[in-house]
Write a structure and sequence with these properties.
Blueprint lengths: L3 E7 L5 H12 L5 H9 L3 E7 L7 E10 L2 E9 L8 H15 L4 E7 L3 H9 L3 E10 L4 E8 L5 H19 L3 E5 L2
Parallel strand pairs: 1-8, 4-5
Antiparallel strand pairs: 1-2, 2-3, 3-4, 5-7, 6-7
Helix pairs in contact: 3-5
C-alpha cells in the first residue's frame, strides 16, 4: 500500500453532499442539510474534514465545534465506519483542539453517549475529564450523556502537549500509511 495523503480542510458548501453521506453512515442522519448550512454560515462554527481522492468514500472524517465565549464546544466528531480504528478520529480531534487553541479559546467541552466507549476512550487519551452527566440527553433512545471537559488550553504547557499529541498521531497514522496535508 502506498502512502495516502489526506487533506485536512475547512468544509465548504461544495462538500455538503459528502458531509451528508458521512453523517448518514455514522449517525443515520443526525443533522440535516439546513443544519450543516447553518454551521457553514455561522462565524462561531468551525467544521473540518479529512478528504481523500483515492477512495470511493471521499470524506473520511469530520469534526465541528462552536466557539462560545472562551469555550470550544465540540458538536460532532465522525469517522466513516470503514475507516474507524486507523487514527482518523485522533487526527480530527487533534486539529479541533489545535484550532481552538489558535483561536485563543480557554477550554473544550462536549457531550458523548455513555455507551460510546470508543469515543470516551479517545477523549480520555486527549486529557478530557468527566464534568457531569446529562440525564436522557439523547432523544432517540433517552440515553444519558457524559459531559467531558478539557481546560487550560491557553497555558504554555498545552502547546507542548499538542506537539506530543501530533507526534503520537503521526506514528499512529503511519501504521495505516496515512499522512495529512493541511490545506488553507
Amino acid at each position: 500500500m502506498t502512502n495516502d495523503q489526506l487533506k485536512l480542510k475547512l468544509i465548504t458548501a461544495d462538500d455538503l453532499n459528502l458531509v451528508l453521506e458521512l453523517d448518514q453512515a455514522c449517525f443515520s442522519g443526525l443533522w440535516t442539510l439546513d443544519g450543516y448550512k447553518r454551521e457553514l454560515d455561522s462565524p462561531n462554527s468551525v467544521l473540518l474534514g479529512l478528504f481523500t481522492p483515492l477512495s470511493p468514500v471521499k470524506l473520511l472524517a469530520m469534526g465541528c465545534f462552536w466557539s462560545i465565549l472562551e469555550e470550544a464546544h465540540i458538536t460532532i466528531l465522525a469517522v466513516h465506519p470503514q475507516y474507524q480504528g486507523q487514527g482518523l478520529g485522533q487526527a480530527i480531534l487533534y486539529f479541533l483542539l489545535k484550532n481552538a487553541h489558535e483561536l485563543g479559546l480557554e477550554r473544550v467541552t462536549l457531550e458523548v453517549r455513555v455507551s460510546n466507549t470508543a469515543a470516551i476512550s479517545l477523549y480520555q487519551k486527549f486529557g478530557f475529564k468527566t464534568a457531569g452527566q446529562r440525564r436522557r440527553y439523547y432523544t432517540d433512545n433517552d440515553e444519558d450523556a457524559l459531559i467531558l471537559w478539557l481546560g487550560n488550553i491557553q497555558y504554555p504547557e498545552f502547546q507542548d502537549y499538542l506537539e506530543k499529541l501530533r507526534l503520537k498521531l503521526s506514528d499512529r497514522l503511519s501504521q495505516f500509511d496515512w499522512s495529512i496535508v493541511v490545506c488553507q
